[in-house]
Design brief:
This protein folds into 3 domains: about 300 residues, Alpha-Beta Barrel (TIM Barrel); about 200 residues, Rossmann fold (3-Layer(aba) Sandwich); about 70 residues, Immunoglobulin-like (Sandwich), CATH 2.60.40.1180. By secondary structure, it is of the alpha/beta class. Helices cover about 30% and strands about 20% of the residues. The chain is globular and about 75 Å long. Helix 6 packs parallel to helix 9 and helix 7 packs across helix 9.
Length: about 700
C-alpha cells in the first residue's frame, strides 16, 4: 500500500514534477541570451537527442529582463520558454537576483558589499550586493513578483530556482544596522550581549547599541563570540531574503517546487536551517578531476544533502561534464567519470542530474568550464557521453522518490564549524570539514550507509553516532547526548569536541567540558604537535601499535577504560583513546589524530558492536548503496577504481542499464555501474507501508 503525500507538501510537489518529466530530471543551465536566435532551435533539437527534460533559465539575466528601472522585457524569454515546451523540455526558472544590473548599481552604488577590510566589492563579477540594502531587496522582490505573474501558467514551467549560490557577506553600513537589529532580537539587553561576548576582555564593553557594528577586520585579532554571532546573522539574513522571494512565487504557483542551490562544504550558510525552508535540497558539486579520492568528499556531500531534509531525495543542480574552471589546473574528467559521478549522486539519493552548463560559453569568466555541448560542438566524446547517459536515465524512472535508511549518524553542524575556525585556538590551520571527512571515510570505505545530523537532531533512531570536532555544544545538547548513550547508544567523539558553549565561551573544569561525564575522561591540556610530520607512537590495549600526529592531549581516564596510550613523546604513558560504559551504552573518546590503521578498525569495531553492518562486502573503491520505497528496492554498485572489481551481489536483480539479470559474483568494469532492481518480498512491502 502506498500512501500519497498531501497535495500541499514539498514531497507532493517533487513527485508531481518528476511525473511530468517522466522520471529523473536531466539537463542543465541554459543561457540563450549568450547566443544568437538561430542557435536556439539547434539547441532544442540537440537537447532532444541528449534526452534532456529540464533546463534552468534566467539565472544571470536580470539586465536582460529589466533593462532599466521598472522597464521589463520578457519577450526573448517567452520565445525560449515556448521553444522548450514545443520540444518537450521543462523549465526550472530562476529569479536573477545574484546579478544586480549595472544601471541599478549606478543608481545605488552602496548596494555593492563592503569587504571585511573596508574595501568595496566592485561590479563585474556576480553576487555583488549587500542583502541588507533596502533598495536591492525591493528590486529583487519586484522582479520575482513580475516573473511569478508572467510565467505562473506557462506549460513549460516545472520548478522555481531562487537566486544562485547565496553567500556574499557585507560589512557596510546597511549590514551594521541589520546586525544591530538582529542582536536586539536575540539579546534582551546590552548587558546580556556584553556577558555573552565576554566584552570585559580587552575592554570591549558596549554602553549603547549604536556602538555595536559588524566585525570588520581589526588590526590584530577580534572577539570570537562577536564573529560567531555575525556568521549566524549572515546566514539568517540571506535566508530571510530567500524566503521572501519564495513566498512571492508560492502565491503564484502553489503546486511547483521552489529551491535554491547549495554548494559543497560551504561555510557561510547554515544549510540545516535553509533546507527546512525549501522543497528540496539542490547541490552544485565540482570535484577536482585530478584528485583520485574526490569521490569520497563528494559522497560526504551527497549524504549530507540527503540528510538535510531527513532523507528526502535531493537534486544535483550543477556539475561539470569535463573540465572545471575553478581549479588551478583545469583538466577534464576521464572518460566514464562524468557518468560514474552522476550515478554516485543517484545512489546517494539524488533525483536529478543537471549540469552547468548546456553550451560552453565562448566568452566571460567561465569560458573554459565544460558544457554538455563544448566549443568543438556535438561531434565530441563528451556530447556522446551526455547522450548515452540521458538515454540510460530513462530506464530509472522508478527510482525517483525512493530513499535510503541508515543506523549510523555523523554530526555536521555549522555552529561547530564557525566556532572552531574563528582562530585564537591552539591550531589555526585546523579544517572542520577535513575532520568530518577523516571520521566519515572508514564508514564510506566499508559501505556503511551514513546519515548526517546536526547537534539539535534526535539521535534515538541511530545505533552509532560519531561526533567529529564538535567544538560547540550547548548544555541541552550535552544532556541529550548523555541520554542517548545512557539508553544504549554507542558514541564516538574526536578531539576538540564540547569545548565551548553557545556563546563560544570555554567550559571550565577540563576538556571536553560538555562531554566529560559521558566520556568518563578529561584533558588537562591540549598538545598540538608543532613539527611538520611530527608523530608519536601509540600502544594499543590489545597489544597492537600505531601512531598519532597533528594533535594530542594530556588525557586522564576517570571511569573510562584505556584503549590506547602514548608510548613515546612528552605524554608517554598517558591515555590517547578511552571507552566509557555509561548506562546501557558506551562512549569512546579519540583524543589524538590517530593513523588510519588505528582509526578504521576502531570505527568498524564500533559499527559491529552497534549491529551496523555493510550492505555488501566489497573491495575498497567499490561503493554500494540501496534505495527503496513504493514497494521497490534498488541496489547500486559503483566501481571508482581504474581496474575491474569482482563483487558478490548475492541474489542480485535486474540490471536496469544492461537489461540483464545479475546475481552472485560479477565483475564491474573500471568506473562501471550496476543498477539492480531487486525482488521485494510481500513482507517487506507491508513493513514499508506501516512505517
Amino acid at each position: 500500500m502506498t500512501i500519497e503525500p498531501d497535495a500541499h507538501t514539498a514531497e507532493h510537489r517533487l513527485k508531481t514534477m518528476h511525473q511530468r518529466l517522466g522520471g529523473i530530471a536531466y539537463g542543465g543551465d541554459y543561457n540563450p541570451e549568450q547566443w544568437p536566435r538561430e542557435v536556439w532551435l539547434e539547441d532544442a533539437k540537440l537537447m532532444q537527442r541528449a534526452g534532456v527534460n529540464l533546463v534552468t533559465l534566467a539565472v544571470f539575466s536580470w539586465s536582460r529582463l529589466e533593462t532599466a528601472d521598472g522597464v521589463y522585457d520578457f519577450g526573448w524569454l517567452d520565445e525560449v520558454m515556448d521553444l522548450m515546451h514545443e520540444h518537450g523540455i521543462g523549465v526550472d526558472l530562476a529569479t536573477p537576483d545574484a546579478v544586480p544590473p549595472a544601471w541599478l548599481i549606478a543608481q545605488h552604488p552602496d548596494i555593492l558589499p563592503v569587504l571585511a577590510d573596508g574595501t568595496t566589492f566592485g561590479f563585474g563579477s556576480r553576487q555583488h550586493f549587500d542583502v541588507s540594502h533596502p533598495v536591492y531587496r525591493k528590486k529583487a522582490m519586484a522582479i520575482a513578483e513580475r516573473m511569478g505573474e508572467h510565467y505562473a501558467s506557462h506549460p513549460a514551467l516545472r520548478m522555481w530556482h531562487v537566486g544562485n549560490e547565496y553567500g556574499p557577506v557585507s560589512y557596510g553600513p546597511h549590514a551594521d544596522k541589520a546586525f544591530r537589529e538582529w542582536l536586539q532580537r536575540k539579546y534582551s539587553s546590552l548587558d546580556e550581549l556584553n556577558q555573552a561576548w565576554s566584552t570585559d576582555v580587552w575592554g570591549q564593553l558596549y554602553s549603547d547599541w549604536s556602538q555595536v557594528n559588524a566585525p570588520a577586520q581589526p588590526r590584530t585579532w577580534s572577539n570570537p563570540s562577536r564573529r560567531l554571532d555575525y556568521h549566524r546573522f549572515t546566514s539568517d539574513s540571506l535566508l530571510e531574503h530567500y524566503k521572501a522571494e519564495r513566498d512571492i512565487l508560492r502565491r503564484h504557483t502553489p503546486d511547483l517546487p521552489i529551491v535554491t542551490n547549495f554548494m559543497r562544504f560551504y561555510k557561510t550558510n547554515d544549510y540545516w536551517a535553509w533546507a527546512a525552508e525549501e522543497d528540496a535540497v539542490a547541490l552544485d558539486i565540482y570535484p577536482d578531476p585530478r584528485d583520485e579520492d574526490a569521490h569520497v568528499a563528494a559522497a560526504l556531500n551527497f549524504d549530507l544533502m540527503r540528510s538535510l531534509r531527513k532523507g528526502q531525495p535531493w537534486l544535483v543542480m550543477e556539475q561539470a561534464t569535463g573540465a572545471v574552471s575553478q581549479w588551478p589546473v583545469n583538466v577534464s574528467k576521464l572518460p566514464g567519470k562524468m557518468r560514474l559521478g552522476s550515478y554516485q549522486a543517484i545512489a546517494q539519493g539524488a533525483d536529478s542530474i543537471l549540469f552547468f552548463q548546456w553550451r560552453q560559453a565562448k566568452g566571460g569568466t567561465e569560458r573554459f568550464h565544460s558544457g554538455m555541448v563544448n566549443h568543438a560542438g556535438p561531434n565530441t566524446r563528451i556530447f556522446h557521453e551526455v547522450c548515452e547517459l540521458g538515454q540510460e536515465l530513462k530506464n530509472l524512472a522508478g527510482i525517483t522518490g525512493t530513499r535510503s535508511t541508515a543506523r549510523a549518524a555523523v554530526v555536521f553542524d555549522w555552529d561547530c564549524w564557525w566556532a572552531l575556525e574563528l582562530g585564537n585556538s591552539p591550531r589555526s590551520d585546523l579544517s572542520y570539514t577535513q575532520e568530518v571527512l577523516r571520521l566519515y571515510r572508514p564508514l564510506f570505505d566499508a559501505n556503511i550507509t551514513v546519515d548526517f545530523v546536526d547537534t539539535k537532531s534526535d539521535l534515538s533512531a541511530y545505533s552509532l553516532v560519531v561526533l567529529p570536532a564538535s567544538y560547540l555544544l550547548t548544555d541541552e545538547v550535552a544532556a541529550r547526548i548523555e541520554q542517548y548513550v545512557h539508553d544504549g547508544g554507542r558514541l564516538v567523539v574526536s578531539y576538540l569536541s564540547g569545548i565551548v558553549d553557545q556563546d563560544n565561551t570555554i567550559r571550565l573544569g577540563g576538556y571536553p567540558g560538555a562531554l566529560r561525564k559521558v566520556l568518563g575522561a578529561w584533558s588537562e591540556e591540549m598538545h598540538p604537535l608543532a613539527g611538520e610530520g611530527e608523530e608519536v607512537k601509540l600502544e594499543l590495549a590489545d597489544g597492537g601499535a600505531g601512531s598519532a600526529s597533528y594533535w594530542t592531549e594530556h588525557l586522564h581516564a576517570e571511569t573510562a577504560e584505556v584503549l590506547a596510550s602514548y608510548s613515546s613523546g612528552r605524554l608517554a604513558g598517558s591515555p590517547a583513546i578511552t571507552q566509557n560504559r555509561f548506562g546501557s551504552g558506551s562512549a569512546t573518546y579519540i583524543s589524538a589524530r590517530v593513523d588510519s590503521g588505528v582509526l578504521h578498525p576502531l570505527l568498524l569495531d564500533e559499527c559491529a558492536a552497534a549491529g551496523v553492518v555493510p550492505l555488501l562486502e566489497a573491495l575498497r573503491g567499490v561503493q554500494v548503496r540501496r534505495r527503496s520505497g513504493d514497494g521497490k528496492s534498488y541496489l547500486l554498485v559503483l566501481n571508482h577504481n581504474d581496474a575491474p572489481a569482482s563483487v558478490d551481489v548475492l541474489d542480485g536483480g535486474m540490471d536496469l542499464l544492461s537489461g540483464s539479470r545479475v546475481q552472485g559474483t560479477v565483475e564491474v568494469p573500471p568506473f562501471g555501474v550496476l543498477v539492480l532492481e531487486e525482488s521485494v518480498s510481500e513482507e517487506s512491502v507491508t513493513a514499508e507501508a506501516t512505517r
